[in-house]
Amino acid sequence: MKEYCKFESALDILVGKWKPAILLQLISNGIMRFGELQKAIPDINKKMLTQQLRELEHNNIVHREVYNQIPPKVEYSISEYGKGLSTVLKALNDWGTAHMKHMDALYGVDRSESEPKG
Amino acid sequence: MKEYCKFESALDILVGKWKPAILLQLISNGIMRFGELQKAIPDINKKMLTQQLRELEHNNIVHREVYNQIPPKVEYSISEYGKGLSTVLKALNDWGTAHMKHMDALYGVDRSESEPKG
DNA sequence: CGTTAAGGTAACCTTTTAGTGACTACGTTA
DNA sequence: TAACGTAGTCACTAAAAGGTTACCTTAACG
Fold it and tell me: Which residues form the HTH hxlR-type domain (chains A, B) (predicted)?
């Protein structure tokens, strides 16, 4: 039963308020510029976008391509290595979809209001 | 490519500093009392243990069985529904294990020191 | 000479999470 | 009568995560 002992390290690279949104954008759209990501994720600000992208880059999930020109141009995309996440994301997504239904059945449609936090 | 859009909701129920540890204990050991969990996870405190267990219970992942006796006895276990998480946890674990090796290869063994955060 | 463009960074502030220590209930044992 | 044991809660503090605003760079455009 000790076969799950490393799942925390996978979780680590996925947590962060905006990482799911960023990954979704890059998976859906392929190569995107900084500004495009910013427009696609309306409530994010530059600092957070930069920060989350840097973390994903550090984990080798996204690739950052800098064009040395003025004004600057920087492109982001899912790296080859990062594409290996798709299995995990799929598993999470499938379970998550089912779980939302399960929660609806238990508590009714308004899930977010009934969660105990803090 | 929109097949990943719900993975965030799965992530939500897994995040929390102590949830991986708690799930691991309950998966490995089956039924456990509050005090046993506390001993098994040395650095957790009662408040956090209670809180994280309550969240897992709310999401129907763990079952809480109260015995009406003095001193109190409360047992926790993974619910039948919660066992459905195993596929996800396995996927996360497998990827996480590989990712740790990948990071070692990129940055050397001392991963934790080289992560950019904040 | 002033403005715009893109992709940031630095200093600072707010909100959310996590952690601490004291306290409670109540039947049993010493 | 006092202390023990279990499973908590409460009020409070500390730390981490997230957010805001101002500012930087440098070429080109008017």
Answer: 5-104
In a domain, A113, yes or no: no
Residue B70 included in any domain: yes
CB contact under 8 A, A55 and B117: yes
Q: What pTM was estimated for this model as a whole? A: 0.91
pLDDT at B114 over 90: no
Interface of B with A in 55-94 (CB under 8 A): 55, 58-60, 81, 84-93
Q: What is the identity of the amino acid at A114?
A: S
What CATH number has the domain bearing residue A13? Answer: 1.10.10.10
Q: Which nucleotides of D are covered by protein (CB under 7 A)?
A: 5-11, 16-22, 25-28
CA–CA distance, B58 with A103 (Å, rounded to integer): 9
Contact yes or no for A54/A70 (Cβ under 8 A): no
